[in-house]
Amino acid sequence: MASYRFIASAIAIVLALSINGSLAARHLLDMTPPPAPALPTIPNLPTATLPPLPSMPTLPKPTAQPPLPNTAPTLPTATQPSLPKPGSLPPLPSLPTTMPNLPKATVPPPLPSLQQPTIPKAALPPLPSLPNTMPAVPKATLPPLPTMPSIPTTMPSIPFLAPPPATPSP
What we know:
Blueprint: H1 2-30
C-alpha cells in the first residue's frame, strides 16, 4: 500500500514540475523580443593606386632555318668474317667404352692388441653422519581470519513512507 502512495506522489510531483516548466516556456515565447541593436556603419576604405606594370621586352624575330633532309644518311656497312663449312671441321675425339682395370685394394694387417693399464681405486674418507631427527620448532598460533560482514536481506522501513502502526481499538 505504501509503494502505491510513493508512486502516486512521485507522479504528482513530476506533473506539477512539468506544468510549471511548460507555463514558463509559454510565457517566454509570448513575450515580444527586445529591439535589435543598430549595426554600426563601416566607413569606405581608400583605394590604393599601384604603379603601372613594366612592359614586356621585345624578343628578336626568328630567322629562317635551313630545310630538314628528306632521307636518312647512309651508314657504312661492316663486313662479317665467313664461318667455316661443317665438313671442314676435324672430327671430335671418341670416348672409351671400357673402363681401365684398377688395382685391387689390400686389407692392412690387424693392429696389435693393447692391454689397458689398471687404475688403483681411490679410498675416500667416510661422510660425516647427520642427525636423523630435526630439532622441534615451536608452534606459532595465527590470529583468526576476519569474517565478512553479512549483507542484510530485508529493506529497512522508512518511517514517513510506512503506514502508522495499528492501535488496538478499545
